[in-house]
Amino acid sequence: MSSILIRNVRLIGDKEPQPRCLLIRNGKIVLVHSETESSIIEADSELDGNGHFLIPGMIDVHIHGAEGFDMMDGTIESVEAVSKACARTGCTSFLATSVSSSLDDLLKMVSNVKKLEGKEPGARIAGIHIEGPYLNVKRKGMQNECYLRHPNQGEMEKIIQNTGSLLKMVTLAPELPGGLKMIGFLRERGIIAAIAHSDATYEEAKQAFENGASHVTHCFNGMRPIHHRDPGLVIAAFEESNVSVQAIVDGVHLHPAIVRLIYREKGPDKMVLITDALQAMGMGDGTYLFGGHDVTVRNGVATLVDGTLASSTVTMNEALAKTVQSGIPLRDAVKMATETPADVLGLANKGRIQPGADADLVLMNDQFEVIWTMVNGKMVYKVD
After folding, report:
1. Which pLDDT score is estimated for 1?
2. Are residues 198 and 135 in contact, defined by beta-carbon separation less than 8 angstroms?
3. Which end of the chain has fewer beta carbons closer than 10 Å to its terminal beta carbon, N or C?
4. What b/e sequence results for 120-130 when a residue is b if at least 16 CB atoms lie within 10 Å of its CB, and e otherwise?
5. How many beta carbons lie within 10 A of that of residue 105, not counting itself?
6. Residue 205 clears pLDDT 70, i.e. is over it
């Protein structure tokens, strides 16, 4: 049996004032003890955390690309690149996320994700998130209007035949013809029905939640805004205790006051940090092709020619830092990047540092810079 002793680390929100140590065996956390007990624990190897803080591996339920690669490119290399980029930024699991496209292009993406699953060089594929094509053109954002269409059960059945159990989430607009029926169809198959790129009224959103929708994609973005006589989707979601919501905390998509508002309304148990990153993540400013559009990135902000925001370039560790800077307690911010998305996806052994959990771990310094990332007890990234 292979075992690793991780020594001298700080755990977020730990009531124990002394540094901690963890014993990892066969990819699982076996023990969590005070550092003073580390000398009596036997292991095949040791890692010294040098007093840095250790968090569960972060989980990104919404990422399109990174490092110049788009998962809709139609190559396995693109999915591999995202896996590596996630690991470098403290993310150990992710949902490979599509954009609205032809069915053929979507199925190519699905095929490549399936081929890589289980052989990822970095972060693990937790499943597939299909964003579109059943979206409202009025709230399309950067989604390509050429591919937007009404929910089609026959098409979705074909998608499910190809994805199998990998399909975890579908984002759609429930007010479209067939939208409510599609939500019920997904719910019956254990697939998360998420809402965004939607012009749903408050009443339409409430009906969607009654039918089984349980998640809101990039809350506030790509949806009817709040008005005091027309509260819309956001307020409907805030009123539903079982509905979780995503937040792009990059300093662009959401004002810090809105980040705090989401946190107050949904709490750390129902607020999920995401990147919604495109291939410009980790690449810097420049021009990129995304979703059939030319996207320009200036000062880290990705936009279409008309100024429409086009995804983000933020990483998970940056999102974590910006969430804390917005005024959210560190312990809760970490939960929203780890345990909460794990719970949304039903991953009971991830997002936690406790005996029996998967050894998906990230060591960070006080500036939220990633020192190393471990997946199932295996080091997949380490600063040189």
Report:
1. 58
2. yes
3. C
4. bebbbbbbbbb
5. 17
6. yes
- CA dist., res. 229 & res. 352, Å (int): 42
Catalytically annotated residues: 276
In the chain, the N- to C-terminal Cα span, in Å, equals 28
Number of neighbouring beta carbons within 10 Å of residue 377: 19
**How does strand 271-274 pair with strand 244-248?**
parallel
Place of tokens 């998608």: 159
Going along the chain from its start, the domains and CATH numbers come out as: 3-55+353-382 (2.30.40.10), 56-283+309-345 (3.20.20.140)
Query: Is 301 in a helix, a strand, or coil?
Result: strand
| pLDDT of 40 | 85
As a whole number of angstroms, the distance between CA 218 and CA 198 comes to 11
Q: What is the pLDDT of residues 280-298, one digit of tens each?
A: 999 989 999 888 889 999 9
Calpha distance 23→32 (Å, rounded): 7
Query: Residue 170 has which token pair?
Result: 């579908």
